[in-house]
Write a structure and sequence with these properties.
single chain, about 350 residues, alpha/beta, 7-stranded mixed beta sheet, 10 helices, 7 strands, disordered N terminus
Length: about 350
């Protein structure tokens, strides 16, 4: 296939990212080791690694070259890339940056913890039975979060602006009285409106929950009807693939342990890669259900006395509280409080939780 030449504007960038040919496999050492953990759903080998590594490396290259655009010595240079070939999926790169006024090169190693193929999926009937009950927990948390952001936020603001005495630590006390009064007058008609919106949203969620409870038990029966099977089967397969992973995590302790084992193994490998390096950084980046799996590993199981320790844990779109921990049917259910577990760790682990209102 004939390919057209790349635009001149992007040619210099890809020259910066050009991989250096190596005579043999590079030594598995790096100043920075990053483990990326995928969310719910089946993942092909290298898929998570590539989806996270490409935008991260492009962004890093942009940031470290800022102010040094004319010096090709700054930026990211890929030294080893193995996505789907033999051996472990890994991306290695050298990052040359300005560090405290001096030109410094730091090596980066990125690997993936692909837990989606570490266990057998639940049967369709098990997923439907479990999902009918779990949907109420998910909808309740959605309604609770929605009421906090839509209703309680303006109510709190209104109360704060109408108080006669504002605590010194409250920044509202620095506002002129006229602005506080104007803000209170503007919020007065908004609060009843948000209350109506929250009630309407709650009704919609209850109706949605009832529909799910009615439909799920009958999906298995509907799949037996030839006229409906062709239409429903792809939908059911997607539903089981995604929601079923959550059911396994919550209800199947052995399979959930297999998920965590994959994360353990990748973190151990990353720790060995940064051992003995100057100013090592060991980081974990997890998405969705992968965040819940990684949080359990880091907050409950991992031996943080090992050196060097995990220094950074970043979660994106995380449902750590919603998914909680694995449940043993013969034991009383214990609540999973990740923030309390994180604060009780013997090391200073930085936890960055990036979320949006719809997470």
């Amino acid at each position: 296939m004939k390919m057209s030449p790349a635009p001149s504007a992007s040619r210099s960038l890809w020259k910066t990212l050009l991989s250096r040919p190596a005579a043999g496999p590079p030594e598995d050492k790096a100043h920075i080791a990053l483990v990326v953990v995928h969310g719910m759903g089946r993942q092909r080998r290298g898929e998570t690694l590539m989806e996270w590594a490409e935008p991260l490396l492009m962004r890093i290259d942009h940031l470290v070259r800022r102010g040094h655009e004319r010096d090709e010595g700054y930026g990211v240079v890929l030294t080893h890339v193995n996505i789907t070939g033999d051996g472990d999926s890994v991306i290695r790169a050298d990052i040359t940056l300005d560090r405290s006024g001096s030109k410094t090169t730091r090596s980066l190693r990125i690997t993936e913890a692909r837990w989606s193929e570490s266990f057998l999926a639940m049967k369709n009937s098990d997923v439907f039975t479990w999902g009918a009950g779990f949907v109420w927990k998910a909808l309740w948390r959605m309604a609770l979060h929605f009421s906090r952001t839509v209703f309680l936020a303006p109510v709190t603001e209104l109360i704060s602006n109408t108080r006669a005495h504002v605590p010194p630590e409250d920044e509202r006390g620095r506002r002129p009285l006229v602005l506080r009064v104007a803000s209170a007058l503007a919020l007065a008609p908004v609060v009843p409106l948000t209350g109506v919106i929250v009630i309407a949203m709650s009704v919609v969620l209850v109706i949605l929950g009832l529909i799910v409870m009615i439909v799920l038990p009958f999906l298995g029966v509907l799949l037996l009807i030839p006229a409906l099977s062709g239409i429903l089967r792809p939908v059911v397969e997607i539903l089981v693939e995604f929601v079923g992973d959550v059911g396994v995590w919550r209800e199947k302790p052995v399979r959930a342990a297999a998920m965590r084992e994959v994360v353990h193994t990748e973190i151990d490998g990353a720790r060995l890669a940064v051992t003995g390096m100057d100013d090592p950084v060991l980081a974990v980046l997890a998405h969705s259900q992968g965040a819940a799996v990684s949080a359990t590993v880091l907050f409950d199981e991992y031996d943080h006395t090992q050196v060097p320790p995990v220094t950074s844990f970043s979660t994106v779109g995380a449902a750590v509280m919603l998914l909680g921990n694995t449940r043993w049917t013969s034991r009383s259910s214990s609540s999973f409080v990740p923030v309390a577990r994180w604060l009780a760790l013997p090391i200073a682990l930085t936890w960055n939780n990036y979320w949006a209102i719809w997470d």
